[in-house]
Amino acid sequence: MDSSLLAKIHMVSVMIFLLIYVVKTVLLFSNKATLDSFSRVIKVPEMIISTLFLVTGAWLFFILGGIKVFHIIKLVFVVISIPVAIIAFKKYNKGLALLSLLLIIGAYGLAEMSKNKAFIPAKVMVANDDGSALITGTKTFAANCAFCHGTDGKKAYRGATDLTKSTLDATLVEQMVREGSKGKMPAYMNVLSPEEITAVGNFVQTLRNTSN
Fold first, then answer.
1. Angle between helices 3-30 and 69-91 (to 10 degrees)
2. DSSP bridge partners of 185
């Protein structure tokens, strides 16, 4: 499945999942009888949405092949929130219900915040590493950029640019790497050295040339 479509399905399932828990939490504080009725009606759809939310999220991580620090914290929040919510609504515990809801909202917030954060660099080994600028560009790109762009530049994860078709020159690529693109590509100015950024800019040109 296309990663952009998968991401949309994941986002929709997350929003519905969050809405269900907001409604259940409000009902827990206002009307337990209505909460019981709502829980019975929503039980199967909630299981489907929860499964879709978790499966699509795991699938996206698998396709991506990398993770960010915020992703790790988000996963911890999600893993904790679900069993806490089950206990909260089973025992009508308002404190636990609020805690679960805050964890779910926090997980969503962390997911949004992670969009502009760099990935944890992959460990990359290159044969005949002579320390040249081309090797530096190859290693830096593979360690930091290949998650979304792929080692050949064609991965286009969640709408990432196919670098074999990019028309940006090396200078503009360097600027994009340094500053990023809000909500889409993280900035690497505080992650990579100026030399590494320049090397990546030059390496991206080789992807285009190889394609042609």
1. 30
2. 181
**127 pLDDT higher than 90:** no
Output the six-digit token pair for 122: 């992959």
Q: What average pLDDT is seen over the chain?
A: 90
Q: How many helices (H) and strands (E) does the chain have?
A: 8, 0
Q: Which residues pair with 181 in a beta bridge?
A: 185
Cα first-last separation, the chain: 27
179's tokens: 């500053």
pLDDT tens track for 23-76: 999 999 999 999 999 999 999 999 999 999 899 999 998 999 888 888 899 999
User: Does position 209 have pLDDT exceeding 70, yes or no?
Assistant: no
Contact 82, 46 (CB under 8 A): no
Residue 40 tokens read as 């019975």
Q: How far are the Cα atoms of 81, 85, 170 from residue 50, in angstroms, in the given order? A: 12, 12, 44
The pLDDT of residue 110 is 86
> What is the pTM assigned to this prediction?
0.80
Cα separation of 72 and 140, whole Å? 23
> Are 178 and 140 spatial neighbours (Cβ–Cβ below 8 Å)?
no
How many Å apart are CA 108 and CA 115, to the nearest integer? 12
Number of neighbours of residue 131 by Cβ within 10 angstroms? 6
